[in-house]
Amino acid sequence: MTSVDKVVLAYSGGLDTSIILKWLQETYECQVVTFTADLGQGERVEAARDKALNMNVQADHIYIEDLTEEFVKDFVFPMFRANTIYEGEYLLGTSIARPLIAKRLVEIAAEQSADAISHGATGKGNDQVRFELGAYALNPDIKVVAPWREWELGSRESLMAYAAEHQIPIEMKRGKKSPFSMDGNLLHLSFEGGPLEDPWLEPPEDMWRWTVSPEAAPDAPTYVELTYAGGDIVAIDGTPMSPATVLTELNRLGGENGIGRIDIVENRFVGMKSRGAYETPGGTIMMRAHRAIESITLDREVAHLKDELMPRYAKLIYNGFWFTPERVMLQTAIDHSQATVNGVVRLKLYKGNITVVGRKSDDSLFDERIATFEEDDGAYNQADADGFIKLNALRLRTLASKRGPSGV
Questions:
Q1: Which tens digits make up the pLDDT trace of 101-128?
Q2: Each residue's pLDDT tens digit, 278-333
Q3: CA 316 to chain centre
């Protein structure tokens, strides 16, 4: 172990990080600064202050910060401008929160003259990579203490035994059974572990927190209009809202209508497959709506190029490379494309489904005179298609004449 005088711990107040706090004090005999980020996870983050105080953390070494607006404005919204989705399903709710936490850990370390940071990510997961890549990108000399890679506590049960030994309270304990491993922020709520470790078992209905089941959703649809400016939602049903307020309201609407549940097996950066269940009601609505407004405001080749770049961009975020020149380069191109992504999208939310039922924009490239199936008054000369088709068929006709109809 390296020598550590003062460490800034990403502290949720939950089981893992409370044990880590005690372990750091005992093992490294160092001062611990706790940082609790309110990213809209729906928990009483202030309770972390009392827990830290009860574990002998100095009052001026306890940081509890509401970062919800910064989180949505500077991290979630930029990601959704790219229509970002990992492996076809995952909206990256956990991944996109880690760069902001890493950023504040490093900043607080500088304020407190701390020489290290610490986190509760396990040695099997992606989060250890995300936290540490972010930290090293912002402070190449920072030390990182990752207890899961050092201690002998290898299971949820051993953690709870340690907590009992040191009189650390355990929330959501189900008898002797370990609770789900959960992570939440304003974008999503995730569940791992427990019965989810068998990919054949259906998640229990009482596991879900934010969404009703589609079967229990209202029998009448909910209509909502989202106003876009520069690729971001700025109003709902005509009412201007801040980024965090937008996502909060969309979470409410989506949750009430059974929208946003997924159950996936994903490929972690460290090399293993992992099964997780996620609730992302607002983000699921945002994804559908953003593609709808882009469908009428983006040039075809720009839209297609964005779709080609998106998997690379998603992989960068998933793997923890937010603070990298390649991510910044992609973001610059993506943001440039959003200058004309303005207008309104109307959606129908019904029993787990989202249907786009209208879209309009002053920057729309949709031309009714050209697209119409009725008389177009000469706006489009259908005879032009003859030469267009023949030019595109030239190589195919050449292949067929030389090698037969298959072109092989």
A1: 999 999 999 999 999 999 999 898 899 9
A2: 999 999 999 999 999 999 999 999 999 999 999 999 999 999 999 999 999 999 99
A3: 12
**Catalytic member of 12, 18, 95, 181:** 181
CB atoms within 10 A of CB 200: 5
User: How far is residue 225's CA from residue 204's CA, in Å, rounded to a whole number?
Assistant: 33
Catalytic (active site) residue 98: yes
Whole-number Å distance between alpha carbons of 7 and 94: 23
Residue 368 lies in a domain: no
Active-site hit among 49, 98, 288, 359: 98
Contact criterion met (CB below 8 Å) for 79 and 96: yes
Mark whether 291 and 396 lie in a shared domain: no
How many beta carbons lie within 10 A of that of residue 16, not counting itself?
Answer: 20
Which residue, 179, 206, 226, sits at the end of a domain? 179
> Do 174 and 188 have their domain in common?
no
* Mean pLDDT (the chain, rounded): 93
Residue with tokens 């119409």: 372
Residue pair 155/128 in contact (Cβ under 8 Å)? The answer is: no
Give the total number of structural domains in the chain.
3
Q: Do 344 and 203 share a structural domain?
A: yes
Report residue 159 as tokens.
Answer: 């953690």
403 catalytic residue (yes or no): no
Catalytic residue, chosen from 16, 38, 183, 232, is 16
Cα–Cα dist 364/362, whole Å: 6
181 catalytic? Reply is yes
What CATH number did the domain enclosing 129 receive?
3.40.50.620
- Which residue out of 12, 38, 104, 127 is catalytically annotated? 127
Distance between CA atoms of 58 and 60, rounded to whole angstroms? Answer: 5
Q: What is the largest CA-CA distance in the chain?
A: 84
Cα angle for residues 211, 213, 219 (degrees, 5° grid) = 105
Sign of CA dihedral 278, 225, 67, 100: positive
Is the CB of residue 134 less than 8 Å from the CB of residue 322? yes
Residue-range definition of the domain harbouring residue 342: 184-360
Q: pTM above the 0.90 mark? A: yes
Residues 123 and 208 in one domain: no
Domain match, 19 and 55 both? yes
Residue holding tokens 């609770």?
Answer: 179
pLDDT at 174: 47
